[in-house]
Design brief:
mainly alpha
Length: about 70
C-alpha cells in the first residue's frame, strides 16, 4: 500500500470517528432536551399547585377574618 493510500485511510478513520462523535452528541443533546422539558413541565405544575394553595390560604384567612368581626 502506498503512502497516499495510508494517509487516505487515516483521514477516513478520523472522519468516521468524527461522525460517530457527532451522532453521540446529537443523542445526548436529544436526551438533555427531553430532561429539560420534563423539568420545565414539573416546575410549571408545581407553580400551579402553589398558586392553588395560596388561593386556599387567602380564602381561609378571609374566612377567619370574617369570623372575628
Amino acid at each position: 500500500m502506498s503512502t497516499g493510500f495510508k494517509e487516505f485511510d487515516k483521514l477516513e478513520e478520523k472522519i468516521n470517528r468524527l461522525i460517530a462523535g457527532m451522532k453521540s452528541l446529537r443523542e445526548e443533546n436529544q436526551k438533555l432536551k427531553k430532561e429539560l422539558q420534563d423539568i420545565q413541565r414539573d416546575s410549571s405544575q408545581r407553580e400551579g399547585e402553589k398558586s392553588e394553595i395560596r388561593k386556599k390560604i387567602a380564602s381561609l384567612i378571609s374566612l377567619v377574618d370574617s369570623i372575628g368581626d
